[in-house]
Amino acid sequence: MSTETAAAAAEVAAPPPAGWEEARSRVYAVGLAAALPTIGRSLAEADGHTLAEPLATRTDLPAFPTSSVDGWAVRGDGPWRVVGRVLAGQTPPPLAADGSTVEIATGAMVPEGTTAILRIEESARTADGRVTGTPRPVPEWREPGEEAYAGEELLPAGTPVDPAVIGLAASCGYDTLRVRRRPRAALLVFGDELLTEGPPGAGRVRDALGPAVPAWLRRYGCQVRPADVVGPVADTLPAHVAAVRAALADADLVCTTGGTMHGPVDHLHPTLETLGADYVVNTVAVRPGFPMLLARLVGDDGRVRFVAGLPGNPQSAVVALVSLVAPLLAGLQGRPMPVLPQVTLAEAVPGRGDHTHLALVRWDRAAGTAHPVRHVGSAMLRGLAGADGFAVIRPGTSGAAGDRVPLVPLPLTTGERAW
Ligand SMILES: Nc1nc2c(c(=O)[nH]1)N[C@H]1C(S)=C(S)[C@@H](COP(=O)(O)OP(=O)(O)OC[C@H]3O[C@@H](n4cnc5c(N)ncnc54)[C@H](O)[C@@H]3O)O[C@H]1N2
Ligand code: MOO
């Protein structure tokens, strides 16, 4: 069979593209089925991981009755005779007699027998040194279990570990957390036309994905070491096979850029076939980004790894990241499927026939509105650099101003789009 005939036959045999939402759910499900192993991490090293078990408090919170003010812990009616002092960190003896008091510091354990705490600034001393004053009617201490009872589940498994979670875990008595190992990702850049430095010209373009994709992957929780970014890989099948095989040795997810189509030097599909990969998704009915794919490989050790084929057009590669890679990584980390916020279109956005249209927009969070940006060709990155995400225009529809549509946010952190 000639090359042309073989390519034509492959086209005919190719399965239809997956719908965008169907592709996302399928990818999430295979990610969750291959969720990464759980490990113990000290609280200092847990940021960015995912809880593998629910967070349940190890004691009542607070663990003991705790004074919330500086003042006097009193028993019975005043004036009160001072019998001691209790500071934070101490275990006080009981207040045994009516008419007695101990000086107490904020955070100190309230002695048994205390009937009220009088604030220092609302107290006075008699000539013989006794304490007088009127305690406020509301208790000035925190009762054990007021925040949570011992054993109570505070956060479910699958919760991303952030500074607030770390602080809560510490206050509940944890030294380490059971978390999912963070995904290890690698990036292979394909394309002999790519320059890795200097201005583009004379048929050659700058590699825009080698520098950018690792940063996007890190924002989705991946570890990507500098040595995990390789390219441009020579446009030959043996070079592609060797590069993907080497990257798979360590990575849970290998992303590739370019070569997803069936052009004369597009070697990704033959590479996947050579390596015995199964397609989870092979093309998605979305514009831009149609030729994106996700394939799964099971190693001799039973370990499941993934190859995400990002199209070469730079904006399309980012569409593939938000469409396939984000749900895959959520599954691998044991997190819930990302829920897409709803936004109101500030202007009309055209549909793309029977394909989903992902349209770059700036998201005004205060107003809940999405504003289409300019310079959004799939080969362009100018619009992306001023956008917060993609408005989702469903197949067979177009977006009118005022329509409510889902938004796929870019994984930007606070302050990265300050207008
Ligand atoms: N006959 C057809 N040709 C194409 C179709 C089609 O349906 N029929 N689809 C087009 C679409 S849509 C896309 S997207 C691209 C995807 O192609 P590949 O994934 O095979 O990517 P390449 O051909 O390697 O590159 C496409 C384009 O992007 C530039 N590129 C590649 N890598 C980078 C990089 N790292 N940084 C910057 N720019 C990059 C490359 O130079 C090309 O201009 O296929 C269409 N063709
Ligand atoms: O799908 Mo391509 O990604 O439209 O440029």
From TrEMBL:
GO terms for biological process: Mo-molybdopterin cofactor biosynthetic process. Keywords: Magnesium, Metal-binding, Molybdenum, Molybdenum cofactor biosynthesis, Transferase. It comes from the Bacteria. CDD domains: MoeA. It catalyses: adenylyl-molybdopterin + molybdate = Mo-molybdopterin + AMP + H(+). InterPro entries: MoaB/Mog-like_dom_sf, MoaB/Mog_dom, MoeA-like, MoeA_C_domain_IV, MoeA_C_domain_IV_sf, MoeA_linker/N, MoeA_linker/N_sf. The keyword Acetylation does not apply. Pathway: Cofactor biosynthesis; molybdopterin biosynthesis. Transmembrane segments: none annotated. GO terms for cellular component: cytosol. Residues 186-331 form the MoaB/Mog domain. The keyword rRNA-binding does not apply. Catalyzes the insertion of molybdate into adenylated molybdopterin with the concomitant release of AMP. This is Molybdopterin molybdenumtransferase. It comes from Micromonospora terminaliae.
